[in-house]
Amino acid sequence: MKRVFVCFIIMLPLLAAAQNGISKKQSRYRLDALKRLEQTYSYIGGQHSGDLVVVRKGDLFGVVDLEGRTVIPLQYDWVAPALNGERFMLFSDTLMGIADRSGRMVVPMEYDAELYAELNVSDPFRYGLIVMSKGGKYGVLDTAGRTVVPMVYDEWLWLVDSNLMILQDYDHQIRQHYETLMQLDGDTVIPTQRIINWWDENLFGVQNDKKLWGICDRSGRVVVACQYDHIDYPHNGLAAVKKDGRTGVIDSRGREVIPVAENRFGGKTPYPQTRNLFVLEKDGRVGAVDSLGNTVIPFEYDFNPEGSASHLVFVRGDTAYFLFDNTGRLVCTYDNFYSYSDCDASEPQLLFAVSRNGLWGLVDTAWREVAPCIYKGADFVDDRHWLMSLDEGTSCLIDEQGQVLFKGPYSYAYPFCDGIWRVGIYDRASNKYILGDVDAYGQTTLSRKELKEMERILTECAKKEKELPVETTVREADETIHTDTILAVGTAIDEEEIDEVFVIVENQPEFPGGDSALHMFICMNLSYPDQARDNGLEGVVIVRFVVKKDGTIGNVKLVRDIGGGCGQAVVEMVKSMPRWKPATQSGKPVNFEFTLPVKFQLTDDVPDGTREERCLFQYSGGK
Known about the structure:
By secondary structure, this protein is mainly beta. Among the domains are: 14-39 and 347-468, Lipocalin, CATH 2.40.128; 273-336, Thrombin, subunit H, CATH 2.40.10; 483-617, no CATH class. The strands form twelve sheets. Strands 41, 42, 43, 44, 45, 46 and 47 form a seven-stranded mixed sheet that branches. The chain has a four-stranded antiparallel sheet with strand order 1-2-3-4, covered by helices on one side. Strands 5-6-7-8 form a four-stranded antiparallel sheet, with no helix packed on it.
């Protein structure tokens, strides 16, 4: 087994590494440097540029180079890289500033930190500009810290592109937002409306005070007068509309492709999935019709997830996915389909996981099979990569070309820096992580001993999953035990006044680094309380909190506790979280209520009569 194992670890996917522009020697140097830094700092920031690293020691963050030399001192509450490490956003108490990669302050620490939400964390300098606030006044700076829009606006700004911005005002008497589309020099393009939604680079949906919708272009010209009760976001150049209970479809010029007056769909709103087919619901089932209302795909499916410009997907039950082309012809079927809904719209997801006969593969946005359905499992890594499970305690990372970048005994992976991935596995028996880094050449910071141990854990986990029945219930602790230590259900900790909180949004909030990083943060910052372990307490603790529109955590509320200090331990862990990427609605950051279940479970007695603890982590989005 040792010989086979070594072979797949040292396979060299040279093409993938070369595409990153990093030689094998350069990559090895970076791996060795990261390994040294991990021995000094408690945190090494991911998804950064290759030669600068965000680090933490104690509670303070800073930036060092790969040799460990200080670039930005460790004196900040949080440091977030931007522009691929060309800029770093620095946060300290209520203030923020921006430094460049030499550590020079481009923007002094005198701006409001609460504006983190408006920065669009994944790409705060998307147009070479950044929204900032100072003393509660909003404006715009460029990457050099120069003022583009003075800090004179009382309400916050949202950048549409490098030329246009939306000013959002709020009428406190009627509790209603109003929006104005403006040029960066302050000239009005679209006068104040109730809502202005940016649809694409040329079109904006507007809603007036009478709650009627229309369309304007980026010059402010009215394309469609405000006359519709509702206009969907355009899809493939078409948008469904509703007026006086009647529905139809218009194109980007406002022409009625399907006249509203005819009401041929029985009041149901047709969704223009392609240029030829429109998805409808009829008697609780979905299908597709053409522009004349003729049924092309029968109404026998449960729902229709998002498709592409040339394909439609329909689902029947929980285990059957049907793929149709834009003529309504059935192309293929799958048992299951897995996408990651939180992808940034600026970098859309390129790969989707599908399964057939219990095995997983990958398809691209055109539904071409990139990787055949031969894998035991599939885990999302980023927009272009998935980690696929193999036999013998092994997984492999596959890119959008179907190339295997590396193999190894890893249960998860996420992009760390140029051409390097952070990989690891969680040992439930010991409640510990084994972590390391791997490059596109297959080189790793993990020792052979660590790799063998990871392989053992992954193999044992796979065996247990086959042997153990699927758990459908959770055993709750006896409520009479230590009730004095259990916080009352629904108890709020440090509850504060927060503006409107959403529970359903277009884009949910995201922990820095994604789900894998959130999983790792929880398991590394949460331990089984002694009192709970000694009394054999097990069960699920549920905490609900608000990810505010500046990314900070607020209104932490313990919804369910099992006693023994478990609930308080989860609360303290949540309160110690760094800033999240906030939820967005209509392209703007909003407050979002997030629900987090954490499962505490003890293993069965081991041969020597002792019990080992393990904390199993599960979570779901806001409910």
